[in-house]
Amino acid sequence: MAEGMAMARAGSLVSKLDSKICYHRDAALEYMEIKAVVGEVIEEKEMLQQDYHALKGELEAAKKTIVEVNKELAAGNEETSLSKKELELVKKKLQDWEAKQNLSEQQNCSASEHVQPSNSKQGQKRSMRHQEVPSQGPLRIDADKPDLAEERPGSMLVNNPIVGQTSVVPPSTDDDMVALREHLIKQFLEIDKYGGWIIGIKEMGKLNVKAFEIACAEKFRTTKAADASSKLYSLWQQRITDVSWNPFHTVTVEGNHQEVLNVNDDKLQELKKEWGEGPYKAVIDALMEMKEYNCLGDRSTVYELWNYRADRKATLTECTEYMADRVQQLTVVKRRRSRRI
C-alpha cells in the first residue's frame, strides 16, 4: 500500500518535472527568437541612422549648392545686364556710323549732280568763308581744297546758303570702326573657345587643317592617315611662315607694278601633284589672306570676325545682332535653371 502511494507520488513529480522542462525549453526558444528579432531591429536601426546622416549630409551639400547657384545666377544676371547695355551702345554707335556713311554717300552723289562753274570772285568769297565759318558738330571745313569746294552743292554748306562758297564733309570714322571691330574680336575670343558658332573668329593666314585631313584620309585610308595629316599640316604651316620662301612675283599691269602669287612655284606645284587640290588651295588661301592683311613681311596671322554660314568676313551689324541673340538665349537658359532649382 505504502509502496503504491510512493510510486504514484514519484510519477506525479516526474510529470511536473517534465512539464517544467518543456516550459523552460519553450521559454528558451522564445527568448532566442526574441533576441534574434531584437538584433535585427538594432541592426536596422543602425542602418537607418547611417542613412539619416548620409541624407543629412547630402541635404546640407544641396543647400550649399543652391546658395552658390543663386549667387552665380545673380552675378550672371548682372553680367547679362551689363552685356546688354554694352551691346546697345555698340549697336547705337554702329547705327550712327552707318547713318553718317549714308549721309556722306548722298552728299557725294548730290555734289556730282550739281557742279557749279567757278570764277575768281567766287574763289575770293570761298577763301573768306574758310576763315569765318568754324566746323560745327561732326562736320569739318575742307579749307585746304578750294577745287573740291567748287564741286559741293549748297545743301552741304554750314551756315552758308550761297552755293559754292565752302565745302563740308563728315570726318572719317574709320578709327572708331577699327576700335569697335577690335573690341568685338576680344569679346568673341572669350566666347569662341569651342567653335561651332555661326559668327566667330577666324585666324587669317592660318591653314585649313581639314583640307589636309581629307587628303591624307583619301590617300592612306588607314590609321596612318591622322599621323600623316598632322605631319603634313605642320610642315606647310611652318613653310608659309618662313619669310625666306617667297611664292610671289611682280608683274606690270597698265604701267602699275603689282605683286601676285606665282601659282607655278615649284613647292606649290609639288604639293598639288602629290596631295591634290585641297591642300594646294588651302596654302594659296592662307598666303592670299596674309597678303590681304599685309602680313607677308613677318608671315603672322590676324584675327578676323567671320560669318561661317556665309563663309565670308562678318559685318559689324551681324556681330552685334548675333551677340544680342546669344545674350538673350543665355538669359532664357538661366531663368529655366533657376525655376528648376
Automatic annotation (TrEMBL):
Superkingdom per UniProt: Eukaryota
Native source species: Triticum turgidum subsp. durum
Annotated signal peptide: none
Span of domain Factor of DNA methylation 1-5/IDN2: 202-330
Segments of skewed composition (Basic and acidic residues): 141-153
Pfam families: XH
UniProt name for this protein: Factor of DNA methylation 1-5/IDN2 domain-containing protein
Biological processes, Gene Ontology terms: gene silencing by siRNA-directed DNA methylation
Biased composition (Polar residues): 103-122
Span list, region Disordered: 103-168
Coiled coil regions in record: none
InterPro entries, per database record: FDM1-5/IDN2, FDM1-5/IDN2_XH
